[in-house]
Write a structure and sequence with these properties.
- With 362 residues, the protein is an alpha+beta fold.
- It has two domains: 191 residues, no CATH class; 164 residues, Alpha-Beta Complex (Sulfite Oxidase, Chain A, domain 2).
- 44% of the residues lie in helices and 17% in strands.
- The protein contains ten helices and 13 strands.
- The strands form three sheets. Strands 3, 6, 7, 10, 11 and 12 form a six-stranded mixed sheet that branches. The chain has a five-stranded mixed sheet with strand order 5-4-13-8-9. A two-stranded antiparallel ribbon has the order 1-2.
- A hairpin with a 2-residue loop joins strand 10 and strand 11.
- Bound molecules: ligand MTE and molybdenum atom.
- Ligand MTE binds next to loops.
- The site of molybdenum atom has 7 residues, from loops.
Length: 362
């Protein structure tokens, strides 16, 4: 055998059996949705492996998809082979190409926006739809995996090579960004791109889903601090402008970040003013005028800031005036805006996950 023939032969032998390709696609797409969603909650650099896994899986899916398409090509291009399930297959392919291409363009730093949707939000949309379609598609042509399709040594080898190649492709892509100096080259570990400058105008006004309250009247505004404290208090907007400053990085899951100087009152000072804290206390919940809310563990909350100012300017309405939470190391969606109520609690608040998605809808 010549060298080329031998290479072809090795490649052929590396190709997983059809069922292994199909089941791997289902598995990898599920893992993508899982790592993608969990990555939304990661705001500290130590979380980088999760982002790398997401990227490597993405490139590995490209490889699996090439094998898959080479196999089923005729079923798509030859009308005499069309079945009812073909439409679903085509839709699934469209969603896969959509999710992969938006993901890949995003890592190259392409920064197109469709109204207030970033390319990353479109990617998330494609990804979620893709999982539903893949599951539906798999159930129309369900075949149990056989042991022979996942022979142990080969399976380990294939997955290692696929993920390794995926990670290498991503590393290479970073090199291209640096060479061409694209907008992708100064991204954070989370993939977010910088928004430069100081103050209200320097970064976008973002709502996680639908929050869009009317401006809050400064004169009648009151912040309530209560719950498991000895002496619940109410403060007005002037009393919150206490002059404590901190530099903190806001990293939004729609793909941008900004570093700003925030000014306001330390949450620990607010809690001190509310008297002794009950020994059952474990969380501090920050509630917006819209109902939107997030809780931080007590110790973390004490280090957080309730900001009235950003970059020497009073917070604008869109950025959460009169006061918003600054929670360093947390993703943007946890930085509650328009805070009207701070509550010390004993229990973890599982409902917050739902409320951040639903608040703001009538
Ligand atoms: N009440 C409330 N607070 C909120 C949100 C929201 O929708 N409602 N969006 C969050 C999200 S997703 C981000 S990224 C930041 C954005 O802050 P900014 O609008 O000042 O840029 O606010 C957070 N605080
Ligand atoms: Mo966000």
């Amino acid at each position: 055998m010549g060298a080329r023939a031998r290479l072809r032969d090795a490649l052929d032998r590396f190709e997983p059996p059809p069922r292994a390709v199909d089941w791997s696609l289902l598995l990898f797409v599920s893992a993508e949705v899982g790592t993608g969603l969990v990555s939304f909650t990661v705001g500290v650099p130590e979380g980088w492996p999760l982002f790398w896994l997401h990227r490597a899986l993405g490139f590995a899916i490209v490889g699996l998809l090439v094998w898959k398409l080479a196999r089923v090509r005729r079923r798509l291009t030859d009308p005499s082979l069309w079945q009812r399930s073909t439409a679903l297959s085509v839709l699934t392919l469209v969603a896969a190409v959509g999710a992969l291409s938006t993901g890949i363009l995003w890592v190259f730093g392409l920064d197109i926006r469709i109204s207030y949707w970033t390319l990353l939000s479109v990617h998330v949309g494609f990804g979620l739809v893709l999982l539903l379609l893949v599951v539906a598609h798999a159930s129309t042509r369900f075949r149990l995996p056989r042991r022979a399709d996942f022979e142990r040594r080969r399976t380990v080898l294939r997955y290692t090579v696929l993920l390794g190649a995926g990670a290498a492709a991503y590393r290479l892509q970073q090199g291209v960004n640096e060479l061409l100096d694209t907008a992708g080259s100064d991204r954070r570990f989370s993939g977010s791109q910088p928004r430069e400058g100081d103050g209200n105008g320097a970064f976008p006004i973002t709502s996680w889903v639908a929050d869009d309250p009317d401006p809050i009247d400064r004169e009648s505004y009151r912040l309530q601090v209560d719950g498991l404290v000895a002496n619940p208090i109410e403060l007005d907007a002037e009393e919150l402008a206490a002059g404590h400053e901190t530099e903190a990085l806001l990293d939004c899951t729609s793909g941008w970040y900004t570093v700003q100087e925030w000014r306001g009152i330390r949450v620990s000072d607010l809690l001190d003013a509310a008297g002794e804290i009950d020994e059952e206390a474990a969380y501090v919940r920050f509630v917006s005028v819209t109902g939107y809310r997030w809780s931080l563990p007590l110790a973390e909350a004490e280090d957080a800031l309730l900001a009235t100012h950003v970059g020497e300017e009073r917070l604008s309405h869109g950025h959460g005036a009169p006061a918003r939470l600054i929670a360093p190391g947390r993703r943007g969606f946890q930085w509650v805006k328009w805070v009207t109520h701070i509550e010390v609690r004993s229990e973890y608040d599982a409902g917050q996950w739902v409320v951040t998605l639903t608040s703001g809808f009538d």
